[in-house]
Amino acid sequence: MALNIKKLLVSQPKPASEKSPYFDIAEKYGVEIDFRPFIKVEALSSKEFRQQRISILDYSAVIFTARTAIDHFFHLCEELRVTIPETMKYFCMTEAIAVYLQKYIVYRKRKIFFGQTGKPEDLVTVIAKHAKEKYLVPVSDVHKEDLTAMLDAKKINYTKAIMYRTVSNEFAKDEKFDYDMLVFFSPSGISSLLKNFPDFKQEDIKIGCFGPTTAKAVKDAGLRLDVEAPTPEAPSMTAALDLYLKKELGGNKKNGK
């Protein structure tokens, strides 16, 4: 009746809320869950940014796709001693991202716009109404091109500015890596696993992942994918884990374990 999976590694930061479904799974199945991101985001230095020959004050509007982009944009402005004028317009992928701007600016005094659905096409519709602006798009060194492709289609005047990068989170030499299951959320997480453990052999270790690009990265690395989300039955990673563990527990009961 015992589970073969006793210890899981989830490659994300530990949830801030004790109400996270991960904690329910740990309690329900008596498994240990460690949270350890395989990747981390780090800022570009002002020197590195200057090499792109971008002058922030040449732009009349900024497009933010994530809170991380907001943090790195304002930190870089501070480092470069750039004072953003009150006339600057901000276009955000969602209202939640727009509200996050309050951390750096007086929200009610600024021109702030956001998409209603969180989809890039919705934000681009809003941007197209302000087609005369000159837009700056802060991005990571690895980023999706769907938004910029839509901006191109609408002939929007924009420039991508790399302000932060995704790097592998190093594991200490003496750090234990004794997990029965690893859960990933991005292709860079898989790259980091193989960088940290070049001799990694999967054998009985189960691998779970979220999203089709991560699933492809698992298979491209020659690894076996055991748990996948989202699916119609499991829209979230925690739902997929719950289903998998329930199934394994049921199978082990039948086998008399």
TrEMBL record:
Pfam family, one: HEM4
Extent of the signal sequence: none
Residue ranges constituting the Tetrapyrrole biosynthesis uroporphyrinogen III synthase domain according to the UniProt record: 26-238
GO cellular component: cytosol
GO molecular function list: uroporphyrinogen-III synthase activity
UniProt record, GO biological process: uroporphyrinogen III biosynthetic process
Stated name of the protein: Tetrapyrrole biosynthesis uroporphyrinogen III synthase domain-containing protein
